[in-house]
C-alpha cells in the first residue's frame, strides 16, 4: 500500500485490538496468489471465473466538469466522458480488473490516490495506510469489530447518528456521552468522565474508543474547532483512547452566516487557500497512530457509490483487511472503476475544485434556512437571550401580552454539513405545563411528540431529537433519567434537499404551529 | 417486497434467531420516511445530499447479447447498449435513484426481478421474500450474525471453502463435518452426527445450522443429487436445522464427461428444458421455511458486481434487513443499475439463455482438464480400481517393474462448477515411506507439501486440499487427529481460468512430478 517517507512510528497500540479480531488469520488462498505471478507458471489453482465470460464490454460515464456551476439548473454544461473498455493498452484504465474478484485490499491505483489525497489534505505525522471500504456504515461496523468487546462503553457526543449506535446496541455496548458546546465536545468533560470512571458502578471497563463526527456533525452541525481538536487529542493520549474520526462532511465546511450579507456569487479560492480554510483533522495531529479516519465519497460524489477508505495505523489496517476478506471483499468494481476514471479525468486538483463548488452549494442552502428563520422569528444572539447557558442564536416570538421576547428555540449556526440543530424551550408553554402536571414519566418527550405531530399535520417534517440520544441502556431513556435539561427538547432541520421556496414555506408552517403553542402561554 | 399467492406458511422458527439479532431495532430514521411521501409535505427531515450535486449525468454500458458465442474470441459480436440518464420519463430507468442512498431493502424492481427468477427456477412451496445483498461473502457473514451464537457448532461438508470458515473461527465456532460421496453429504452420517451429539464431550449445543455449497461445491465439485437433497432435507426437519444453501454455481450444471465423445457444438435447449435439467434446490422442496438461499451474480454476470440476494422466510429477511441497515446499507448503486438495465434489455429468458452459454463454456473447460488427465494417465473407473472405498475415477501410472497399474489419484467427474477435486494415494511412494518412518506428527501433510512444492518448481500450481479442511479446533488439524484416511491427501484443480493449451501443459507437468515420486516406489 505504498510507504510514506520520514513518518513517525506509532506507539504500540496492539492492546486495543479485541480478542476476536486478534484471532483472525489470513486466508491460505491469499497466500497462494503470489505464486500465480511466477514467470511461466500455469495455475490450476485459481477459482476465478474466466473474464471472457463477463457480458460487459465497455462502460461510458458522462460527468460534470469540476468547474460546473452547481445548483444552476438552467446552465448548459459540457459533460466529460469517462470511457472504459476491456484489455486496453498498458497505462489506460482496463475495465476487466474491476469486473473480476479483488484481493480485499482494493485497486492499487485507487489506494495510491487515497494516499495522495491524504497527504495533500491531512499530511499525517505518523505512519499510516489506506484501505478501501464500501461506505462509512460498513467501515464503522468493521471498526467496532476491531476494537470493542461485548458490553464495552464507547464515548460519543451526547447526540449521535442512531445507526452508528444501532450497530452496537445488540452487542451490549453502551454510550458514555460527553456534552458539547459550539466548538465540539468538551475536553474537560471528556477527562472528567475518564478520570472518574468507576468500573463497578458503570458495569464495564473504562472506554477505549472515542467516536466522533468531528465536522458538521449529524445531528448537531457542530464542527470541532482547531483548539478543541488539540485538547481532545491530548486527553485521548493521556487515557489511551483510539479516536474514530467519521468525517463525511469534512469538505463541506463554509463560513458562518451573516444576516446582512448579500448572496455572494461563487468564487473559488486557490487550492492552497481552500485547504488552509479547512479545520485541522485529528489525523493531521496524530503523532501516535491512534486515529482511525473513515473517509467517504458519499457526500462528495454520490452515496450510491458505496465507496470510501480507512486511513489508519498499519497495525489496524492489517486487521481490518482480514475482516474485509471474510465480511465484504472489495468494494463494488463499477464504483471503483468510476471513481478512479473520474479522478484520472478531473485530477486531484479538479476534485478539490469540485468540493469548493459543493461547499458553496451547502453554504447557500444553510443561508436559505437561517434567513427563513430570521424572516419568521426575532433572532437574538445567545448572549442577549433571557435563557441561561445557551449557545449561538435564539429564535424568539414577540409576546404581545407582556411586550417582551419569548424564546422558542436556540440553534448554533453550522459551519459545515447539512443540519441545523435546534433546542426548543418549553417553559411557559401552557400545553407543556398541562402535561407536566399529569406526572408523566417524560413530559418533555410527550410534548415534543405533540409538537412534531402538529407540524406533520401542518405538512412540515422535522426530525425529532430523541432519535439521536446517546444510548445508555433501557433505564436511561427519559429526559430526567438522562440528566438532560428539563423543559426542553431538540429537533434537527436539514437544508440539504428542499428548494429555497420549500425551506421558506416550511419555516412559515413551523412558525404557525409554534405560534399556536407558544402564544398560548400559561 | 411483493407477496406470493397460495404459498404454505412456514413453521415457527423464531427460536433460531440468535440473541444479538433478536435485539436489533429498526432505525427511527427509517420510520420517518413514510411521512416524507405525504402529499404537499415539506421535509426538513432528510439527511440526503441533493441529487443535483452528483457529478454523474449519464451511464452507458455496452454488453454482449445473451446469445453471444462465448469463448470464441475471433467472433465479432454486435453489442447491445444500456443507456441510463437522469430524470427520465416514468417507465424508463432513472439513474438518479441508484446514485442516492437507499433504504437498505434495495431497488424494488430488482427485488421483483429476483422474485420472478425465484418463481421460474425454484417455485418454493413456502412463503418467502428476496432481499438484496452485496455478494455471498457478506451474505454468509450476515447469516452467521443471524443464527449462530459464539462457540456454536455448524455442520459443513468435510471440505469447505476456507473463507466461509475464517469468518466464524474468531467467534469460537467450530465445524461438525459430515463426509460425502459422489452424490453429496451422506444423510445417514448427518443423522448419526445429530443423533449422537453429546453436548458435554463436544463442548457445545447440537448444531442448528447446515451450511452447504450444494451444486458444484468448492472445492469438491460435488453436486447433491435430487434423491440426496430430499434425504438431507428430511433429516433437517427431524432435527430442526436451518439449511443455508450457498449456491453460486447452480446455473453452471452440465452433463458428465464422456471420454469417447467428440466435442459437441453449442446448442441451446428451450428454457423449459434447460430449467428441467437443473437439479432441484433445497429451496424448491422447503415446505417449512427453513432454507436460506444465497444467490449471487458473481459467477453468472461478474464478481465485481458485489450483488446477490437472499431468498428466505420473511422471519429471517426482516432480521437480515435490520443488519443490512447498520452493517452495509444497499448494494452499490451502479451495480444495481447495471443489473436491472441488463435484465430489462435481455429479459429473464435472455438471462437463462446466457446461462446455457456459460454452462457450455464450463463444460468445455471441464472436458479439457479431464481429457488432459486421460492423455497423461491411465484412467480407470473406481469400480475397477485396486483401491478400496474410492469413488469416480482413478488416474494410474503403468508400473513397469511389476507390469501393473499403480493408482495415483482419484477424482469425481464434476457436473457443475469450476473444480476437479482429487485425492492422492501415497501408499508405496518411497519418499512418503521415508517421511512416515520419521515419526512426524503428520507425514501426509508433510509429503503433500513436498509434492506441491515440487509442482511449483515445475511451474504448475494446484491448491492444497489442506486449505479446505473443516475447522474443528487447533487440536484437530493433523490427518490422524481429523480421523482422515491415512496415506492420502487432496488437491483442487481448477479449469475456470487457463486455456486448453495451458491445461494440457499443466497436467503434463503434474505427470512429470508425479512420475518422479510414484515411479520411485519403495
TrEMBL record, chains A, B:
InterPro entries: Aminotransferase_I/II_large (IPR004839), Class-I_PLP-dep_aminotransf (IPR050859), PyrdxlP-dep_Trfase (IPR015424), PyrdxlP-dep_Trfase_major (IPR015421)
Entries under Pfam families matching the protein: Aminotran_1_2
Cofactor: pyridoxal 5'-phosphate
Residue span, Aminotransferase class I/classII large domain: 97-509
GO biological process entries: aromatic amino acid family catabolic process; lysine biosynthetic process via aminoadipic acid; tyrosine biosynthetic process
GO molecular-function term, one example from the UniProt record: aromatic-amino-acid transaminase activity
CDD domains: AAT_like
Keywords: Aminotransferase, Pyridoxal phosphate, Transferase
Annotated family: Belongs to the class-I pyridoxal-phosphate-dependent aminotransferase family.
Protein name: Aminotransferase class I/classII large domain-containing protein
Organism, as annotated: Clonostachys solani
Amino acid at each position: 500500500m505504498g510507504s510514506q517517507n520520514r513518518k513517525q512510528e506509532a506507539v504500540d497500540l496492539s492492546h486495543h485490538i479485541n480478542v476476536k479480531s486478534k484471532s483472525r488469520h489470513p486466508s491460505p488462498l491469499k497466500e497462494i496468489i503470489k505464486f500465480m505471478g511466477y514467470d511461466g507458471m500455469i495455475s490450476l489453482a485459481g477459482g476465478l471465473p474466466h473474464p471472457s465470460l463477463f457480458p460487459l464490454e465497455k462502460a461510458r460515464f458522462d460527468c460534470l466538469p469540476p468547474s460546473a456551476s452547481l445548483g444552476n439548473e438552467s446552465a448548459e454544461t459540457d459533460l466529460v466522458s469517462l470511457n472504459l473498455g476491456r484489455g486496453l493498452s498498458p497505462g489506460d484504465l482496463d475495465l476487466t480488473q474491476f469486473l473480476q474478484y479483488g484481493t480485499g485490499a482494493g485497486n492499487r491505483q485507487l489506494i495510491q490516490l487515497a494516499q495522495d489525497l491524504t497527504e495533500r489534505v491531512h499530511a499525517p505525522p505518523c505512519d499510516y495506510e489506506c484501505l478501501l471500504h464500501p461506505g462509512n456504515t460498513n467501515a464503522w461496523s468493521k471498526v467496532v469489530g476491531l476494537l470493542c468487546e461485548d458490553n464495552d462503553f464507547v464515548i460519543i457526543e451526547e447526540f449521535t447518528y442512531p445507526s452508528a449506535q444501532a450497530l452496537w446496541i445488540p452487542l451490549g455496548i453502551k454510550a458514555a456521552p460527553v456534552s458539547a458546546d459550539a466548538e465540539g465536545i468538551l475536553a474537560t468533560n471528556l477527562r472528567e468522565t475518564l478520570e472518574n470512571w468507576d468500573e463497578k458502578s458503570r458495569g464495564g471497563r473504562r472506554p477505549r474508543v472515542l467516536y466522533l463526527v468531528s465536522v458538521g456533525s449529524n445531528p448537531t452541525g457542530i464542527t470541532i474547532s482547531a483548539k478543541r481538536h488539540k485538547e481532545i487529542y491530548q486527553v485521548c493520549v493521556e487515557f489511551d483512547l483510539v479516536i474514530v474520526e467519521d468525517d463525511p462532511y469534512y469538505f463541506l465546511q463554509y463560513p458562518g452566516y451573516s444576516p446582512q450579507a448579500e448572496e455572494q456569487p461563487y468564487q473559488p479560492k486557490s487550492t492552497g487557500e481552500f485547504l488552509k480554510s479547512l479545520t485541522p483533522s485529528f489525523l493531521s495531529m496524530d503523532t501516535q497512530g491512534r486515529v482511525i479516519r473513515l473517509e467517504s465519497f458519499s457526500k462528495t460524489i454520490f452515496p450510491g457509490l458505496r465507496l470510501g477508505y480507512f486511513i489508519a495505523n498499519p497495525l489496524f489496517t492489517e486487521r481490518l483487511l482480514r475482516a474485509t476478506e471474510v465480511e465484504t471483499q472489495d468494494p463494488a468494481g463499477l464504483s471503483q472503476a468510476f471513481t478512479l476514471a473520474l479522478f484520472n479525468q478531473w485530477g486531484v486538483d479538479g476534485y478539490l475544485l469540485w468540493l469548493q463548488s459543493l461547499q458553496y452549494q451547502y453554504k447557500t442552502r444553510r443561508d436559505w434556512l437561517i434567513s427563513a428563520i430570521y424572516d419568521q422569528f426575532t433572532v437574538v444572539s445567545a448572549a442577549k437571550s433571557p435563557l441561561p447557558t445557551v449557545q449561538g442564536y435564539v429564535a424568539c416570538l414577540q409576546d404581545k401580552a407582556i411586550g417582551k421576547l419569548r424564546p422558542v428555540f436556540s440553534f448554533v449556526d453550522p459551519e459545515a454539513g447539512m443540519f441545523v440543530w435546534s433546542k426548543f424551550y418549553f417553559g411557559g408553554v401552557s400545553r407543556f405545563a398541562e402535561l407536566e402536571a399529569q406526572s408523566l414519566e417524560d413530559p418533555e418527550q410527550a410534548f415534543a411528540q405533540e409538537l412534531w405531530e402538529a407540524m406533520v399535520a401542518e405538512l412540515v417534517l422535522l426530525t425529532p431529537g430523541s432519535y439521536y440520544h446517546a444510548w445508555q441502556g433501557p433505564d436511561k431513556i427519559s429526559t430526567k433519567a438522562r440528566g438532560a435539561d428539563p423543559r426542553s427538547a431538540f429537533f434537527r432541520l436539514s437544508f440539504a434537499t428542499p428548494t429555497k421556496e420549500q425551506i421558506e414555506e416550511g419555516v412559515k408552517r413551523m412558525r404557525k404551529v409554534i405560534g399556536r403553542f407558544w402564544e398560548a402561554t400559561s
